[in-house]
Write a structure and sequence with these properties.
With 137 residues, the chain is an alpha+beta fold. Helix content is 26%, strand content 34%. It has three helices and eight strands, in the order αββββββββαα. The chain has helices at 2-9, 109-120, 122-136; strands at 14-17, 33-37, 47-52, 56-66, 69-73, 82-85, 89-97, 103-105. Strand 3 (47-52) and strand 4 form a beta hairpin. It starts with a helix and ends with a helix. The relative contact order is 0.19. The model has no long low-confidence stretch (mean pLDDT 93).
């Protein structure tokens, strides 16, 4: 992990495998990777690699920035959030690479709209994710 962050800090992009289900349905852990770049000016909606709560790294979406305090939430999470500072945001994910090698920009117009809609669907997200997992497994 530290070597990937060092490469990003040197201005290189790094393809990083994603594990877990916390970014469903936009990033599929275990079969997709993200391409990490320097974070620049972080904004709400960015998918970032961050050191959260002083104990672990996550690839999650920024849902709020209050001064230096950042709140993150995985797209596949129903209610849990993590917190860090802006300096704990180590990289920004710009692309998702699927299992066939296809590269998809995370900030295309339709993906931004879909992510905003998905965030608003938090009250029923649990049920949508249940259906998604049945259909896609």
């Amino acid at each position: 992990m530290e070597s990937a962050i060092a490469l990003v800090n040197d201005g290189l992009s790094v393809t990083f495998p994603v594990k877990g289900r916390s970014m469903l349905p936009f990033i599929i852990g275990g079969s997709e990777s993200v391409i990490l770049v320097q974070p620049g000016q972080s904004a709400v909606g960015d998918v970032v690699l961050a050191w959260v709560e002083g104990c672990r790294y996550v690839v999650h979406r920024i849902i709020r920035i209050d001064g230096d305090r950042v709140t993150l939430m995985g797209d596949g999470n129903v209610c849990g959030v993590e917190h860090c500072t802006l300096s704990d945001v180590k990289a920004r994910a710009d692309y998702v690479v699927d299992a066939r090698g296809g590269k998809h920009y995370l900030y295309s117009r339709w993906r931004i709209r879909a992510a905003r809609l998905w965030f608003r669907l938090r009250p029923i997200r649990r049920y949508l994710l249940f259906i998604y997992r049945i259909l896609c497994n």
